[in-house]
Every structure is written in structure tokens, then in C-alpha cells.
Design brief:
Radius of gyration of chain A: 19 Å
Oligomer: homodimer
Number of strands of chain A: 3
Distance between the termini of chain A: 28 Å
Number of helices of chain A: 7
Helix content of chain A: 55-70%
Order of helices and strands of chain A: HHHEHHEEHH
Largest sheet of chain A: 3 strands, antiparallel
Chain lengths: 131, 131
DNA sequence: CCGAATCCAATTGGATACTG
DNA sequence: CAGTATCCAATTGGATTCGG
């Protein structure tokens, strides 16, 4: 694997104010909960606006209630937009914002790393199970 | 900010098997839950083994029960080691593994990005609150 | 000291029914 | 169609007590 970057890269965490630290961890927690990242990914893959029903289908396994909550949260944080077309029946479209896209990109290295190390995790668990 | 990297970087998600995808997301979820990352960070900052009580103090706000669960999980995944010294009273030390350190490093860019964009999130929420 | 066990409060999530 | 509202089951987390 690669040589670990300097300690400094992590130590900067200590330079944050408590307020920053709390808010940052709140965002990290939020974004990496069960559905938000997947939802963003679906919207990214769509390459354009997606109706509520389509998102519901593609995310898969999520309930309608939780999807609504997730979308509201992502909208609130400026990661997606919500557009209501006042028709009957109503149409609502969700779309990734540049901010949301950027965030998604930042998660890619971690994602890559995890996938690369899946065997290591499996091995660790197997090892742990023996004891 | 920077120009977005090619689409390809994200699209590789689609190339995974369902099994890989599920396991990878499980790991991502796990590692980015409320305490695991912070616990790893504490152990990293310590620069060496840390007793249970010390971790409990430094993480701050976590209960003994949840810390135990967290540490067990991290150990199971090979991210930390747990060493029991059979004394009276017993001493148990936890230490970051190279794997744990590597994972921690992978999260740094995302962490950085979130902190940089804290104002953007605040602005988005403020904007959302007006409506 | 480390942590397992127990009990309990609070939060979360699914299913269902209903509305603009 | 896109939610909101309601109810309920399951999970989570804290506090406390006990044990090796």
C-alpha cells in the first residue's frame, strides 16, 4: 500500500474550535448515515432531475417516510434542490447541487479504500471469530 | 474551488457486485457512526496504547457501555488492538493498528472539505429557514 | 479497573391510512 | 403523485448495579 502521509494531516483536527468540531462532526455523521450518501449517488447517476417516485425505486429498501426525511435534510443543507411543479397530480423533482456533487466526490477516496480493504476486514473478522 | 474530477470516479460504484456494495456501505456506515471515528482519532493522538479509562475520559460524552461496544467493534474489524494485562486490578490497553491509521487518513480529505464548507452549510440552512 | 448485566427512557423506522 | 399523520415495533443509549 501507500506510505502514510504526515501526522500533521490528522493533527489539524486539534486546531479546530469546539464549535467547528461539533458542527463538522454533525455534518459528517449526517452525510454518512444510512441513506444520504446513497441518495446523493442515485441523483448523481441520474445525471439530472428525478421525481420522488423514481428516487424511491432506485434507492431500494428505504421507506417513503425515511426518504422524505432524507431528502428534506439534504435540501436543507444545500446538497440537493427540490422543485415543485404545481400540477394535478403534483410533480416534484430533486436534483444534485454543485455542493452536493462536490461532497460526493470527497467521499470517493474513502469509498475506494474501503473496497480495496474489504479482504482485510473479512480477515480481521475471521481472525476475531476464532478467539 | 477545484474543478470536479471525471464522472468515472463516482461511476465505479456501479461496477461493484451487490455483495461488495453492501459490505462496503456497512463499513462506511460503521466507521462514520457517532463514536468510531472519534475513538480512532483519540488513539491516534495518543501516539501509543491507551487504557480504557483514559479513552473514556478523552472521547468525552460517551457512556461506558457504548465505548465498550465501539472498541469491540473496532477490534473486530482490525482497526485497533486490545491487550489485556492479567493483573489485579486488571489493565487493558487499546492501540491503533496500521489499518486503523490508514483508514483515519482516508477520512481526512472529507473532514477538511466539510470544515472548509461549513459556511456554505450554514448559509444553506439560513436560506432554507427563510422559506 | 474493566466491563457485563439489567432496567428503562428515548429515538428511530416501518406500515397504514388519509389529503391537496 | 407526493407527501403528512398516526400508530406501533424495534433499536439505541444512559444509568446503575454487580462481578472477575
Amino acid at each position: 500500500m501507500t506510505v502514510p502521509p504526515p501526522q500533521q494531516a490528522i493533527d489539524f483536527c486539534a486546531t479546530m474550535t469546539d464549535e467547528q468540531d461539533e458542527f463538522a462532526r454533525e455534518m459528517l455523521e449526517r452525510v454518512s448515515a444510512r441513506w444520504p450518501l446513497r441518495t446523493l449517488q442515485i441523483l448523481q447517476a441520474a445525471g439530472g432531475p428525478l421525481r420522488f417516485s423514481r428516487v424511491l425505486e432506485r434507492v431500494g429498501g428505504i421507506s417513503q417516510k425515511v426518504l422524505t426525511q432524507t431528502l428534506r435534510m439534504l435540501e436543507r443543507d444545500g446538497l440537493i434542490t427540490r422543485t415543485l411543479y404545481p400540477q394535478v397530480p403534483p410533480r416534484v423533482e430533486y436534483e444534485l447541487t454543485p455542493l452536493g456533487y462536490e461532497l460526493l466526490l470527497q467521499t470517493v477516496p474513502l469509498w475506494h479504500w474501503i473496497i480495496e480493504h474489504l479482504p482485510a476486514f473479512t480477515a480481521a473478522r475471521h481472525e476475531a471469530a476464532k478467539r
